[in-house]
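User: Hey, quick favor. My workstation is busy. Could you predict this chain's structure for me?
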Amino acid sequence: MLVKQELINKIKDYFDLNIYETKVWLALLGKGIASAGQIADISGVPRSRTYDVLESLEKKGFAIVKIGKPVRYIGVKPRMILEKLKNNVRKDAEDRIVSLGGIKETEEFSMLEVLYKEGIDPVKREDISAALKGKSNISNYLREVLQNAKKEVIICTNAEEINSKTKLFQQTFEILKKSNIKLKFALSGDESLINQIEKKFGMKIKRINIDAKFFIVDRGEILFYLSKNSDKEDTAIWLNSEFFVEAFASLFEKAMGEK
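Assistant: No problem, here it is.
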């Protein structure tokens, strides 16, 4: 079969097939309709293995059997396979989300919570500073930090960041408003986008030219981003230090002309 090994390896990884399955499927796609013997000759897969491989591909939806004798096989077009795999992944993800959601109600999860809070050396928030990597990790941590606010939240970032995480911030701001948490909101970026965000969230936003992204909670905790380039992995630092954060917040307010 005149197919480069590099292509075979990539197709194998893309579609989660083994090497024989990949060679047989590619042979089927190239031939159109073929018998097991023809596929063995084209693919280079041993004839003794070709029948098992074709049966495996049929079960996975990569091949179908043509009615009639002799038995011949048809390769399913790549676009259909891709859509099928995407649907499978989506279904698996939805099932996994439901499964994970139920863990909170289990006795085992309650034991984990107790272990975290009352262990031999329980973690104290005031003892922690952490480096966070990845958009999802940072967003999850940011949500928790903001929603634990007791008095005040200061947000300094850019309009694009807020707009890209509308769902996260909208839910969080609603919780903060209901708890009467004081919000100070400063954004850089496109003026029209800032106006849209101001209307969407129903709050006053201060326009700034500071190229920075940080979130201050109760003047005791701060989460700030270390990188701004979208082509790099997001990295942030969360710090719990009342002395440092109070000083940082005061400097920011002074720069904003609030003090």
